[in-house]
From TrEMBL, chains A, B:
Pfam families: Rrf2. PROSITE patterns: HTH_RRF2_1, HTH_RRF2_2. InterPro entries: TR_Rrf2-type_CS, Tscrpt_reg_Rrf2, WH-like_DNA-bd_sf, WH_DNA-bd_sf. Keywords: DNA-binding. The keyword DNA-binding applies. NCBIfam families: rrf2_super. This is Rrf2 family transcriptional regulator.
Length: 136, 136
DNA sequence: TATTTAATCTACCGTTTTTATAGGAAATAT
DNA sequence: ATATTTCCTATAAAAACGGTAGATTAAATA
């Protein structure tokens, strides 16, 4: 399961994608509309900013905004950023790989199945963007 | 990611599947061969027994054994048993469904994508059994 | 029947992660 | 100046994770 953090991030990003041409959006506005704790959301948006997903502006008329068009922000990127690995096992993770301590990957059937799951998942998440999940 | 608990469970079940016709297997034997803390493994196997996956026998000559042939024990079942939901969001979980607090599922694009991920994952995990992951 | 073996059960414990919250500093607009 | 809003760091409660301890129960066997 995705953490609350990542779930909130998606809702906030959807909101920003929907208001993409209206300049910076207040944290407080997103928090209210999406029913998220404002202080928690503050941390999340800051993290997204430091990762290069969002831009921000301080002071009156300030807020957060997407740095790229929604169609270029892939869902897999957001998940990896906030939740870490998408794979079900460390030994099949592409971005957070760790060697198994108690099995030999070359003969481990579990490894093979979990790699399949990873591929099926990534095929979707790496090809779906914010544009694909905004409300229609 | 799967918890250590579920990962250990898989390794233990693989071991039991490999020794399926040799009667009950000691916890201590599995723990040693698979390099798992014996007390932790004890809890895991007990949980699998209470869920009807394993049988057990006390006393000398005792141990744990599979109640069904390996090909009938599906990977999805084990994960759900020990880790809970397989889906990435509560609102797309088939077995642990919970309503979204901050979105309307009928218009939520995220919901739709995550349902796709769930289906792709389940297509694999509900059709792969212990038999498919024993060492060849 | 006594002994040994091995699962069963309940409870507990320490660490890390998660989910926040608090408050002041820094930047910007007016 | 002042009001606004993000930035940053620290803290904290709660839950999850990973593992331990020890007494109990059941079965085999000598």
């Amino acid at each position: 399961m995705l953490s609350k953090k990542t779930q909130y991030a998606f809702h906030a990003l959807i909101y920003l994608a929907e208001h993409v041409d209206k300049g910076p959006v207040l944290i407080s506005e997103i928090a209210e509309k999406k029913n998220i704790s404002i202080k928690f959301l503050e941390n999340i948006l800051l993290e997204l900013k430091n990762a290069g997903v969002l831009g921000s502006k301080k002071g009156k008329g300030g807020g957060y905004y997407l740095l790229k068009p929604p169609k270029e922000v892939m869902l897999a990127r957001i998940i990896r950023l906030l939740d870490g690995p998408i794979a079900l096992l460390p030994c099949v993770s592409l971005n957070y790989y760790e060697k198994c301590s108690n099995c030999d990957e070359t003969i481990c059937g579990l490894h093979e199945v979990m790699a399949k799951v990873r591929d099926a998942t990534l095929k979707i998440l790496e090809n779906k963007s914010l544009k694909d999940i905004v409300h229609r």
